[in-house]
Amino acid sequence: MTKPIYLDYAAATPLDERVLAAMQPYFSDAFYNPAATYVSAQNVRKAVETARSQVAALLGARPAEVHFLPGATAADRFALEYILARHPDKRLLASAVEHPSVRRVVQGHGGSEVPVKSDGIVDLRALQKQINDDVVLVSIMYANNEVGAIQPLADIGRLLTQVREQRRQAGNPLPLYFHTDATQAANYLDLHVSRLGVDFMVLNGGKVYGPKQMAVLFANGSLDLHVHTGTENVPGIVGCARALELVQHDRHTESRRLQILQKLFFHLLAEKIPNVTVNGSIKHRLPSNVHITMPGQDNERLLMALDEAGIMAAAGSACQASSEEPSHVLTAMGVSDGAAQASLRFTMGRGTTEADIRRAVDVLAGLVASHSA
């Protein structure tokens, strides 16, 4: 039997064996509650604080600015709702391609969406115009989970710094915070919060070959934010920190490897599938992402047929896989509903090989040809 090919790494990654090894003691021998006062429990507390320091070092942050929460959705909501609680009558801005966890909060509190261009990159001029004197927070995801577009966070950070200075000179005391969901970026991009100019950053263990339902929330120390989640998930915290260390250490090497595979993927698709189009920026794109539209095709039919052939892919965000609505990301990019329903996302990772790419494209091309005949 042919080995299945997994091309949905943006949805979930397998647990790294080195991460599992780091977590293992805290499931069994070192099972103690880190809040207890006896020596064995305090040794577990040290493991939690060591993990916090490890993540802080990766982010260029202080350990007190690093918080662990049960999942990225919870972390995103916590950050946004914390600001809303402090400034209940002020407004939030978020890009039109944000994750649903962010969009729901922003829309639920009367916030506004910042448009993106056809390549999925935020329109900086539009963003600048939308930041009025009542905007207290801007949320822009670092890299899009559907089309892989990488947003210019450092440029946005500099823009927000200018706005803060203008407010100071005008006597407006309202702060302006910058939040980013970086869950898709951690495998490949710089996470240094000062270089990026962000006040909040969310990372997801389940996207970096670490434990699921384990997230990191960086919050600028000036906010004096305190997170209380009950008994801490020590194996998850230790594993998340170790996973982030590993992917950040290898990010340049892995990015170069995947860029070669991505280029091959695009070349083979163009060669074998007539009229295929690539969605999202080519230049500013995660090396793992291939998102395409095949006019006249039905993505649900293709996904089922690919699955039967042993190839696992996606039509978009895993969080919206059961929705019959067109992707809000593609809609924001100006893609028609019909084209959106003819689109597929393939995301590569550590286990992806050249042979996988060649077989996946051959199978997909065969399915498209049979439907078009």
Write the layout of secondary structure elements.
Blueprint: E1 5-6, H1 17-23, H2 39-59, E2 66-69, H3 72-86, E3 91-95, H4 100-108, E4 112-114, H5 124-130, E5 135-139, H6 153-170, E6 177-181, H7 193-196, E7 200-204, E8 215-219, H8 234-272, E9 277-278, E10 289-293, H9 299-308, E11 311-312, H10 328-332, H11 337-340, E12 343-347, H12 354-372
Parallel strand pairs: 1-11, 3-4, 3-5, 5-6, 6-7
Antiparallel strand pairs: 2-8, 7-8, 9-10, 10-12
Query: What fold name stands as the CATH topology of the largest domain?
Result: Aspartate Aminotransferase, domain 2
Please give the CATH architecture of the largest domain: 3-Layer(aba) Sandwich
Tell me the number of strands.
12
Shape, principal axes of CA atoms? globular
The profile of the biggest β sheet is: 7 strands, mixed
Poorly predicted runs are none
Main-sheet strand order equals: 2-8-7-6-5-3-4
* SSE pattern, N- to C-terminal: EHHEHEHEHEHEHEEHEEHEHHEH
Short description:
The protein has 373 residues and is α/β, with parallel strands linked by helices.
Could you explain the architecture of this structure?
- With about 375 residues, this protein is an alpha/beta fold.
- It folds into two domains: about 5-15 and about 250-370, Aspartate Aminotransferase, domain 1 (Alpha-Beta Complex), CATH 3.90.1150.10; about 15-250, Aspartate Aminotransferase, domain 2 (3-Layer(aba) Sandwich).
- It is built from twelve helices and twelve strands.
- It has helices at about 15-25, 40-60, 70-85, 100-110, 125-130, 155-170, 195, 235-270, 300-310, 330, 335-340, 355-370, and strands spanning about 5, 65-70, 90-95, 110-115, 135-140, 175-180, 200-205, 215-220, 275-280, 290-295, 310, 345.
- The chain has a seven-stranded mixed β-sheet, with helices on both faces. A three-stranded antiparallel β-sheet has the order 9-10-12, covered by helices on one side.
- Helix 7 links the parallel strand 6 and strand 7 (about 200-205).
- Helix 2 runs parallel beside helix 8, helix 3 packs parallel to helix 4 (about 100-110) and helix 8 packs across helix 12.
- It is globular and about 65 Å long.
- About 45% of the residues are buried.
- The mean pLDDT is about 95.
